[in-house]
Amino acid sequence: MTEHNATNTAPVAVITGAGRGLGRALAATLSSRGWRVLIDARRADELTAAADEIGNATPVPGNVTDAAHREALIAAAEVFGRIDLLVNNASDLGPAPLPHLADYPLDGLRRVLETDVVAPLALTKLVLPALRQSAGIVLNISSDAAVEAYEGWGGYGAAKAALDHLSRVLGEEEPTIRVYAVDPGDMRTEMHQNAFPGEDISDRPEPATVVPALLRFIDERPPSGRYRAAEWVVAEAAS
Fold it and tell me: Which residues does 67 contact at the CB level (< 8 Å), separation at least 6?
């Protein structure tokens, strides 16, 4: 793995939904490797605590569905003169407990699509000029619900399927950068707990266990496409 000094030449990452869970774990690891990280989340207090813990992190609280917030987030990153990585990690699960599609509130579906599809594309559009210059990476956090039919997961799964397809097309259209849609697998997160209210999810792995797989995409730059983090980790162990 390549280490970087925290100088004006240090690589810069923008990570959404980094107040907790996978986003926070990835931001902490990149910071420890010398990256400058810009992090966002809706809960300002949680984001500030994350930035204090991570170090070398700039918190920009807000909602990715807000155009003004998106512009402020990217503007804060551009101060460093480069952007090397955009991680679209912020997601909206939708109504909980998860409803059947026959009962799915359409306003709830619109909110999920706005957060999980429209906002990542909007952020990507803002950051593309910088990523082209740095031959950077867009890392979209997907889900197995994008490709598997699970009862109750129709809204979230449809949104992640759309994000997967956007990732594939962008990868074809932008050959100078890398675009990944990565399914991290089940994790012990607040969102996963919300999907299974009242159930014990302590058997799910911590988000930090997925970070080594994400680092391989950043370090090794395989072809753009959709990947499962678990298979990437297995491939690493077998190599």
Answer: 122
**pLDDT attached to residue 210:** 87
Q: Tokens 């050959």 correspond to what residue?
A: 175
pLDDT, position 171: 98
* Token representation of residue 3: 């280490």
What does the pLDDT look like over 147-185, one tens digit per residue?
999 999 999 999 999 999 999 999 999 999 999 999 987
- Single pTM value for the model: 0.89
Number of domains into which the chain is organized:
1
Higher pLDDT, 18 or 188: 18
In a domain, 149, yes or no: yes
Residue 205 confidence (pLDDT): 67
CATH code of the domain in which 192 resides: 3.40.50.720
Which residues span the domain enclosing 93?
12-238
- Residue tagged active-site, from 104, 156, 180, 227: 156
* The pLDDT of residue 5: 38
Which tens digit of pLDDT belongs to each residue from 127-136? 999 999 999 9
Active site residue 104: no
Neighbours of 110 (CB within 10 A): 12
Inside any domain, residue 7: no
In a domain, 69, yes or no: yes
Q: Which of 229, 153, 237 is nearest to 186 (CA)?
A: 229
